[in-house]
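Proteins fold reproducibly. Next comes a concrete instance:

***
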Amino acid sequence: MTHFPEFEVVPAVDVKGGETVQLVGGEPGTESSYGDPVEVAQRWLAAGARTLHLVDLDGAFVGERENAPALDAIVDAVGDAVGVQVGGGIRTVEGATRLLEGGVDRVILGTAAVENPAIVGEISETHPGSVTVSLDARDGEVVVSGWTEGTGLDPAEVAGRYEALGAGAILFTDVDVEGQLAGVNREAVERVVEAVEIPVVASGGVASVADVRALREAGAAAVVVGTALYEERFTLREAMDA
């Protein structure tokens, strides 16, 4: 499967308690709600999205797919019209495989991949290129379990390790700037891009079309945007045209 043959702006649909939300800096309790996830997904589709980024936020914190019904409903509603990547609470090979066989194009593994790197290879054996490993960095180190635990690992170094295990892409989130509309950390993204051959998808802090452009120039294959789109700082079309 080709990941992002050309640069893409990917809307994030983060689901908590069955609603579309955006958190500030990953902190529970900071969310703003944006309504029914299926309606939101269809709106992004109509606006020209080629890929959707779906995250089960409750799942990310508890380690189980808490919002599976809402996410499955989105996958059913959008069909093959767009690429769909799903993350949050996927901890097992079976869980990932079930999603991939149910119409999801890519699964995003964070905590599971850090705690058990072999899982990346196991899923990739049957579904090559379908695993995106999510590396969330705070103060330059990889953090797990909903951004609560530091690992002491360097994101660029770790990215190379997952590429060797068969990961199809890296999703790199800078937690320091996540959800705060404060701009992006271009240098951090460049370091990860330089460490691997596979596509790097950047996420966190995008506040303007200029930030989208900066991440593209840093070498990112795509950028995931949440808060800025929901708060209408710019439209999806404006970001794509940039």
Q: What stands out?
A: Residues 8-241 form a domain with the TIM Barrel fold (CATH 3.20.20.70). The chain has a mean pLDDT of 90. The radius of gyration is 16 Å.
